[in-house]
Amino acid sequence: MKKLATSLFRAFTLGRADTERESSDASMNYKNHKWSNAKGVIGGHEALLRRNETLLGITHSEYPYTLIVSLLFKELDQSGIPSNSSEIARADLTEEAIADALFEKFGGLFSLSIATQGTRDIFIMFREPVKENFIESAIAVCEPKIDFGLQFVEDPKWQPYFKFL
To answer: 81 lies in which domain range?
Structure first.
């Protein structure tokens, strides 16, 4: 498991967010949580962000293990954002299926989604490390509709999440 480097996230500058659903119980499914959306720039590239605001109310050090699932887009516009609506729809279905499976099987909290430079990175937080083969099995069962990659990091400070306060 890798430690997350702080310097990786110093280049973020995002615009003002608007809000969606609202709840104060982080133990509930993410679909009932309050989310914010933003559009901006990361490292000089256009970025789209969604952050689970409900998770501000939990003790973050209790969830120090992060799984980053990178959904890989094939058709991009010149800014690196996906341009094919059917590919975006498949990514949305895959994101939801993965977040649901990891919440149900391991209590993983879907905290953040960042789309930039041809990927949508989904950040899932865990109380304890979960073996990679268990994660892969849980994801395989939900039959992803788009190619993806996995990265496990230890990040008790939730660096990317708090970068957008």
So the answer is: 2-23+32-162
Confidence class for position 14, pLDDT limits 50, 70, 90: very low
Q: How far is CA 32 from CA 22, 53, 83, in A?
A: 7, 11, 28
Return the ∠ at Cα 17 (arms to 15 and 18), rounded to 5°: 145
Number of H helices, E strands in the chain: 3, 9
| Most confident region among 40-44, 79-83, 106-110, 141-145 by mean pLDDT | 106-110
Per-residue pLDDT, 164:
60
How many domains are there within the chain? 1
Q: What is the DSSP pairing of strand 2-3 with strand 148-154?
A: parallel
pTM score of the predicted model: 0.81
